[in-house]
Amino acid sequence: MSKKSERYLFIKAVSILVGTIIGAGVLAIPYSIYIAGYWLGILYLIILGIAMIVLNLMLGEVILRTKKNLHIPEIIKLYLGRKGYILSLVAMAVLLYGAISAYIRGAGDILNRLIPMDSFNWSVIFFAIGTYFILKGLKFVSQWNIVFVSGMVLIVITIWLRAIYSQSIDWTQFNLQPTTSLRNAFQPYGTILFSYFGVIAIPHIRTILGKKSDQMESVIQLGVLIPILLYSIFVSLVVGVAGQDITPLAVISLGDKLGNQVLIITSIFAVIAMMTSFITMGLSMIESYINFGKIKRSTAVILTTFPPMALLFFDWARFNTIIQYAGGIGVSVTSILIILSFWKSKVSGEIPPAYSLGHLKWVGIVMIIIFSFGALSLFI
Question: Is the pTM of this model over 0.90?
């Protein structure tokens, strides 16, 4: 394989991980952080971001220790048995259905603000386009993902530079302390966990890299670092520009303050972000259904895509609430199971991996505490 081909595979793999991580959560993070206080929120972003880098590296090593390229529930079944498998299926269902529901709802609300039409109709259009990409498969999606992710990065940097140039950022907003209760202080926890969760893309990355699995470690490190930086820039932008007028959907806050052009650009960014995550999560859930129930792919597609639309039809929850619970419960439980699988794979792994992190006993224990608190924070 030529150096040019290797670089292209590397970029495709990174873009899949970045595109999976950056989704609907990016719209909810600024409001949640503002409620908790900017500096506390940035601390959450950094600490949880580092934890997610380690978690992704853990799963990457587990996958590379396994002969077959399995998805997360099957990996957990291999190393933790049937009880872990069932628990992972429940957690993944909460996470993926919650995430897909949030993407469909969020996209409808944003597109309605951009081009007035009933939000539900826009959600149906978004759903139809996303389902089309899912049906086309991973190879087709990974090619488009490079364009989508490049566009997202370019849009955020462009708006940030424009805001600085026009002196629209009020730096004193960062020192405001709107926190009035313990509950507000912990509000960003589940949202940020949700917003960083991209481990379901790791099996896809192994497929993309093929024989170049030695690049997995670098792909994961860069693929998580980019969202950490992008989230930090975007949160600072929204809080600095909108301040006390911030809304649960960040793009609306920016549009109200910086004008219609910025609303259009940020809306495009938000829809692209949700589309990339919708597609990757949808592909992962389809594979889980196929492996679990031994059912046809067409049936798996229906089981993956239509329940979130049904939830939207019955208007069961607000955008931010969906994200908080999907992150607090789905991400927390799945992450803990991945850590336990990582430890078990050190003993019973099938093949030598391309990289090894060491046992990470105390690091894993600290991370289990962090993720456990993600679930507990919902009840504070």
Answer: no
